[in-house]
Amino acid sequence: MRFFLLTALAAVLAGCAATPEFKSLASRSAEIEWRLGETFGRLRADFYTATSGSVRIVARAEGATLELTQFPEIWTATGSLARGGWRGVPDTAPPHLAGWVALALAYGESKNLPEGVTEYRTVRYSVRYTVAGGTLVAMELAAADTGDRFRVTFASR
């Protein structure tokens, strides 16, 4: 019986393995307009880029929060908008987070864009980036699987 308890405890501790540290290299503040069907919301957000190239989005609106973080091998989501949290890879994201994962992936791909408007389509999303003066100023994204739509306007630097 004691062996069983120790084995169960080891399994629980392995499942709660420490999440790697997110070392932010840069951040951008933004306003997000989010729509899913008849649901609409405006959120303030901070987009972070890590030294590893990973992305974190921290979104807030009227007491509700979402912190979505990409680590090299795992994603995590916490906060009231995460509805109990999530830890996994993009393909396992629950429906209420899958659009946000697509947004984070698109933001992570926004480096080195040409001046003006650039559009891309992937299996997960279609996105339109607007770059002015060498800086990303806006993104519009439609998530293919969930129907989430995001309009992101970044604050001036």
Quick structural summary:
This protein is α+β, with helices and mostly antiparallel strands and 157 residues long. It has two helices and ten strands, in the order H-E-E-E-E-E-E-H-E-E-E-E. A hairpin with a 4-residue loop joins strand 4 and strand 5.
3D architecture notes:
- This protein is an alpha+beta fold and 157 residues long.
- 18% of the residues lie in helices and 48% in strands.
- A ten-stranded antiparallel sheet has the order 6-5-4-3-2-1-10-9-8-7, with helices on one face.
- It is globular.
- The N terminus is likely disordered.
The helix-and-strand class reads alpha+beta
What is the residue-mean pLDDT, rounded to a whole number?
88
Return residue spans where pLDDT drops below 50 for at least 5 consecutive residues: 3-16
Number of helices: 2
Q: Could you give a short account of the major beta sheet?
A: 10 strands, antiparallel
The side-by-side strand order for the widest beta sheet comes to 6-5-4-3-2-1-10-9-8-7
Strand content: over 45%
For the termini, the CA-CA separation is 61 Å
Helix fraction, binned, reads 10-25%
Overall, the morphology is globular
Radius of gyration based on Cα positions:
17 Å
Indicate the multimeric state: single chain
H/E series, N to C? Answer: HEEEEEEHEEEE
Q: How many beta-strand elements?
A: 10
